[in-house]
């Protein structure tokens, strides 16, 4: 799904209308997944989770995503996301930041790389993502402040056959108003490694035609990706491109889960995707169940016009599967039950290496710490646990907070950290109810 836009409503009536559609989505998703006789492996959101990138909007988004994960049978730790243009805080665009963003638009990679290589300039550039960074890092979907892609989650769909998800930040230079063709991924995101036995699924908010480096990005994607899932334009589309012999690229625009305006063209939409291994072709197969809002019955149903006569199941020419070692036992090669999302090391940055040994209990505490607490509460906990001195006046940026969190876990202080988090959450709830 994409473009959930929590906080977009300007009047109370629209709040009720959108909330009802989101409740019906929970019911519909639970019913459709149950028909498959299994549970979901995870949830994907390709940007615009919030509308103004405010903490309160992400609180509501987190509560709803928790309910969605529960209804479809996956862990709330298995939610993947990328940022969209509504996940930047426009109030954080100072004159200096605007100057840098305009310079990147004009000069491209040269200026972008210069700013990313300077720690101070880099943090200023990412300050627009402050609330999103807290929210997404709780799920382990950290923004790489070096401007590098993230490819640290994978699902094994058969022995020796893995789908790796590549998360990109197409909102990197988004400003107050962005024109089509002016955004940029940068070389550090465009260039990602392919691995034998793995096929790549790229998650990105903006379709390629919104990027000024779209031609160069498309060349890498055609060479190394098998699926691209995007959002932003609020209307779904499907395009399967034959790249070369026995090599295809599927491009899916997800549509908007909660568009700005609901009319005859734009309405509430989401998709149920199934990734599996086609044994005969040694290929990735993607089955799409497109869901759309029925305005007459006020519920979701199959989007009969979306596939335009195409089959739900699309077998994609997958050269990187074929380059991998053959499965040891072909007749028993399918994975029983839902495939599990697993943290893996990013082949370029090595990110997620700490997650490889992180238990679900620790990951859940990380989610509660970064997603459910404001910066004020997190700082207070770090002081209480003597991770930082009480008289420290410097602001802790997100990267430093993560280091202190990791240090407390490494010191075996998980129980105290968990208790402090729960106490802070309780205090916050009591304060909100007064």
Structural topology:
Elements: H1 12-35, E1 43-45, H2 55-72, E2 79-81, H3 95-107, H4 109-116, H5 119-126, H6 130-138, E3 150-158, E4 161-167, H7 187-190, E5 198-203, H8 214-224, E6 225-230, E7 237-244, E8 247-253, E9 269-278, E10 283-294, E11 299-302, E12 313-316, H9 319-323, E13 341-343, H10 360-372, H11 375-384, H12 398-410, H13 414-433
Parallel strand pairs: 1-2, 4-5, 5-6, 6-8
Antiparallel strand pairs: 3-4, 3-13, 7-8, 9-10, 10-11, 10-12
Helix pairs in contact: 1-2, 3-4, 6-10, 10-13, 11-13
Protein name: Metallophosphoesterase
Domain GTPase-associated adaptor: 362-422
Domain Calcineurin-like phosphoesterase: 2-235
Question: How do the SSEs run, as a string of H and E?
Answer: HEHEHHHHEEHEHEEEEEEEHEHHHH
Could you name the CATH topology of the largest domain? Purple Acid Phosphatase, chain A, domain 2
- Strand share of the residues? 15-25%
Helical element count?
13
Structural overview:
This protein has two domains: 12-355, Purple Acid Phosphatase, chain A, domain 2 (4-Layer Sandwich); 373-433, no CATH class. The strands form three sheets. Strands 7-8-6-5-4-3-13 form a seven-stranded mixed β-sheet. Strands 9, 10, 11 and 12 form a four-stranded antiparallel β-sheet that branches. The protein has a two-stranded parallel sheet with strand order 1-2. By secondary structure, the chain is an alpha/beta fold. It is globular, with a radius of gyration of 21 Å. It is built from 13 helices and 13 strands. Mean pLDDT is 92; it is low at 330-335. It comes from Burkholderia vietnamiensis.
